[in-house]
Each structure stands twice: as C-alpha cells, then as structure tokens.
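On to our target:
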Amino acid sequence: MSSDDEFDYGKDEQLRSREVTEGPDKAPHRAMFRAMGFDDEDFGSPMIGVPNPAADITPCNVHLDDVADAALEGVDETGGMPIEFGTITISDAISMGTEGMKASLISRELIADSVELVSFGERMDGLVTIGGCDKNMPGMMMAAIRTDLPSVFCYGGSIMPGEHEGREVTVQNLFEGVGAVADGEMSPDELDEMERNACPGAGSCGGMFTANTMASISEAIGFAPLGSASPPAEADSRYEVAREAGEIAVEAVEAGRKPSDFLSEASFENAIALQVAVGGSTNAVLHLLAMAAEAGVDLDIETFNEISARTPKIANLQPGGERVMNDLHEVGGVPVVLRELLEADLLHGDALTVTGETMAEAVARIDPPAIEDLDADFLHTVADPIHERGAIRILTGNLAPDGAVIKITGEDHLHHEGPVRIFEREEDAMAYVQEGNVESGDVIGIRNEGPRGGPGMREMLGVTSAVAGQGHAEDVALFTDGRFSGATRGFSIGHVAPEAAAGGPIAALEDGDTITIDIDDLELSVDLSDAEIEQRLADHDRPEPQYTTGVLAKYGRDFGSAANGAVTNPGVKDE
C-alpha cells in the first residue's frame, strides 16, 4: 500500500504505532493486520486513523463513506497506513422537537470519547477526522485535541438548496412553514410541495447553521486547510478536499505537528471573529468553549462580546439572510471572509494552522478575491458592513449571572420589557405556540432543558420556527436554559446559565414576572431583588431526573455548565 521512500523516517522513534507493528514479539499483531490486506510496507508507515460517522439516518452523513475513501487514498498515496473506523451520529433535524433531541449534545461527547479511545487503544500516529452533522465537527476536533495526535479535520460538505416557487429553500423554511400553516398563512398543500423539494440530496443543512458554522470555524481555527469548508457534498471538489486532508495528515505526522502546536488563544479568537462576521450559529459558542477547555486555552464567554464589539457582521446568509453555503462557495468560500477580516486587522495573522503556515501565509497562498471586487450582494466589506457589531452577543444579569447567548439576525437594537409565560419543557411551549396563543410583545421562557436538566440541552428549532412562521420573529422573545438551532432566527436567547437544574435564577421565575431584555446593554434580567430570588429558590423543589439509568442518566450527571461549554471530561469541566 505505502512506499517507504515517500515518508521521512527521521522521527521513526516517535511513531507509537511501532508498539503494534515492530519486532518479533509483534508477529501476532501483524498477522491481524495482514488479514485486512496490510503488508510489510504498511508496517513501516505512520498509522493514520480515519474516524467516519457515516450513517443512513441523515443526509448529512449518508455519503461519508465516499468522503472517507478519498481521505484514505490521500493517506495511502502520501506514504501512510490508513485505518478507517466508525463512530456514531445523531440527526439533529430528524430528532428536532422530540425527546430524541436530548441525544444530540450527548453525541458530541460520545464521538470525542470513541475517537479518543480507538486512537489510544490501537496506537495510532495521526488522524483525519470526518464530520457531517452538527455535533460531528466539535466532537471530532475535541477528540483530536485530547489525543494531541497530528490531525486534520475534513467536512463532508453541505446539501445544495432546494427550489420552491423560484426561490432557494432549506429545511429552515420547512420548520417555519409549520408555523405558517398553523397560523393560516400557508396551505398544507404548499408545505407538502416545499417538503418534496427542500432537500435534494446528500449533505448538511445548507445555510450558515451549526454544521456550516463549525466547518467554517475549522478553517479559521487552523484545523482544516483553507477552502475546505464550502465545496458541496456531492461536488468533485469535496473529494479533492478529502484527499488533500489525508495528504496533510501524513505530512503533519512527519513534521510532528500536533494540535497543541497550533491551537492558541489567537486561534480561538480568529474562530470567534469568523463566527460573528458571518452570523454563525449560537451553538458555536458552546462548542468553542468546550474545545478551548479541552485544549487548556483560557477562553471566557465574555470574549465573544469583546470580539463582536470590534468585528462587524459582513455576510448575509441563512437563517438571517437568503443565501446559503453554496453561494459563498461560488465566490471563493470562507477564505474570502478571512481575507477581508485579515486586511482589516481583525484576525491574528500570525496564528498557526495544521499545514504549518500562519493564517496570513495561508490566505496569501489561496489568494481569494476581495469582497469589493465581487458581484455578491450578500457579502459586505468591513468598511460598509451589514451591522457594525458582530452577530453574537452574551447577555448577563440577575436572570443569567453566568451568561446567555443570542444571535442577531435582524434588528440590531432589540429591547423588550414584559411579563413572562414559563414552561417546564419544550413540548408545552410548542403546544402553546401552535394553538395560536402567541401575541406581539410576549415573552416565553422554557426551563429544565439545560445540559443536566434536559438532560442534553435540546435545540428548539420547532418552537422558534413556529413563532417566526407566525410573523413574530422580532416581536416575541424566547429564552431558555436549553439551546436553539443554528437555523433559529429572531429574538431567541439560549444557554441561560446557571440552568434551572443547577439552581439558577431561571428556576425561580413565575408566570407574570417582568423580564427585561436589552441587546445594547447586554442585559437579561427579572424585576426581582436578590433576596426574592434566593427565597424562591429556597422554596423551589427541583424536579427529579427524568432518566435514572442508561446513557442519558450518565451524561445528565456529568455535564458541566453551558457557560463553560457543557463538557463532560472530568479533567476540564467545572463543577
């Protein structure tokens, strides 16, 4: 399979795969490898693991066997010994609005755990981690950070948009269509027609939702080569990207280039700058905090405010806009945005990447077009932005002492004061909305959906989309200790911390309490004194865990606070 002269063996002694391939006492081990088609040449090569979450349960991952095959070819052709192995995935879109959505965030941890375990147990030298659906990306990058093996991230690519009545549509439009049907603004027949055309093939949801946000971040943070996030799932260029990832992984092993060598505070700040500039998912706040915790990088949730304050929003993509990832790809992809931010001194150009280049060197090599030279109405320059501030804001106050997260997709100066209607779970809130009870000016609070309380911190695209579909995206406020989907838009605040299950102030709320939300002042508060909140919490009986055995019970016990990434790794999580 591999050729010795294609690999620099100057660092042979560093290859831990030698523990299972070298010496007379490893004859039994080599026999096992020979049964799988490996030979003498492979035993002298670096062993590169290719964890693959391919599955027939989501279009995001249905094609990943083909992506993995291209990565395996890249490893083999560059002198490595490619070892593919599997891991799990959960379809966020299919589990959305059901009890099954509680498995989504848990899957991030299970992916990280399983890849770490296989890499450790089989003595691998490097990784090409592949991701399709939302939690695959952070899970794979967290695994690479934990193992600290030379690693490259490879995205499976996004789905092409569907077409309905002459306009591009995605699954976001369907979720909002459900609300429009309930409100009488869309007929069931039109929703049916949209359903049949919204998702035309393989790939992750097409807007700048969580999957595409995290794929874009993989470039900005240095885990993936520039230009790798945007090629569509079924394009030939997607498989060229995967082959390149395999080649880079072998080169990284040869150079001894590990995640700890290129991940830094500057890398994470670059990732946040990209996120807020393109209007990326609020979920990226959670995942970047988790990745930073795993990497030992001191990243505070307030850093998102600091970077949003200096970094304008310059891309108008779904869910706030109309364009999708493929539109960005057609004008040059993520490097176009990185170049604009770099030239405006909003990125750390000296941050290192997996290729060994600095960010500035990588952008110069790619040489993407400048935004002002493009005919792309959805991209703005830093000098003439869509919004002066970035899209992500962290709100604090007596209702969220440790923070809460909102993405600005429309009006930039949101302010609201009003009585709250509290729900103990997502289903009750969804029923309330679908029954037509929502009116302009309402505040909806959903609690006991946090990392521990859910457990699993469900995304609630169904609720937010139903509200948006009824025309209330900007005049009805929602907040929760759970999460909102990357496809959520409007006045939706998630990640309220501490969560209700941990005794956070959200547990003290009663129907009718006056809530103040002010985006300019970064405030989420309730009109109660500290003493009143403390008294109510003292009188409050926390609900018993819904799951007492099995995987949901275990992770419900182990999750840390959303303010620190909701990690479960005992070496890095908060108490």
About this structure: The first strand starts at residue 47 and ends at 52. Confidence is low (pLDDT under 50) at residues 1-12. The chain has three domains: 45-160+201-373, 161-200, 392-564.
